[in-house]
Amino acid sequence: xxxxxxxxxxxxxxxxxxxxxxxxxxxxxxxxxxxxxxxxxxxxxxxxxxxxxxxxxxxxxxxxxxxxxxxxxxxxxxxxxxxxxxxxxxxxxxxxxxxxxxxxxxxxxxxxxxxxxxxxxxxxxxxxxxxxxxxxxxxxxxxxxxxxxxxxxxxxxxxxxxxxxxxxxxxxxxxxxxxxxxxxxxxxxxxxxxxxxxxxxxxxxxxxxxxxxxxxxxxxxxxxxxxxxxxxxxxxxxxxxxxxxxxxxxxxx
Length: 253
Fold this sequence. Notes:
Elements: H1 56-98, E1 103-106, E2 111-113, H2 120-146, H3 155-178, H4 184-190, E3 197-198, H5 211-227
Antiparallel strand pairs: 1-2, 1-3
Helix pairs in contact: 1-2, 1-3, 2-3, 2-5, 3-5
């Protein structure tokens, strides 16, 4: 009887006997349960480096950017025109030195060509065109190399065209001024009868004045076409799903 009753003072039941087949009771833990970890917050999206097209920030910055680009193009055009004027003066000096002159002689009644079948006038025009073309090619290559990091605006081609026309005109005027006198009668009276003298240097074909600006513009177009990076398509950040989606096929009959 005593072994089967519970102990009133201890308040606990009898301990299981070894070999009885009953499992020992597991004591409950008195510590508080650990709290569950909080869910991680999603990362904040990084701001775009440039505003999207049509964004109010881009619209507000457009007039300032346009004014800056216009001022840069204007300065580039003026620099090319000024540089072409200086090169035109140098071209006039060179042309007067290398261009052949028309030989003449005079008697008591008239002035004659010493070489009636000579092509000195045509050769002088050819030299003028060749020198102008070389200067236009080099100037256009230099202008492209200096502005290759930015988009070529209107300042470079306009500066090359107007500068080429101005440089060619200055070269022609300076070469004619430094060459033999245009007063053939006064020159014939100043030399002995039958002695050869030279006629004035002149451009007989006005089309050679277009050699400089023409070659410069063609060179700029070719260099831009070959070496400028091709514009890439803008990255699509979001595309509206198509409303006409094709129905999915069912494998089951």
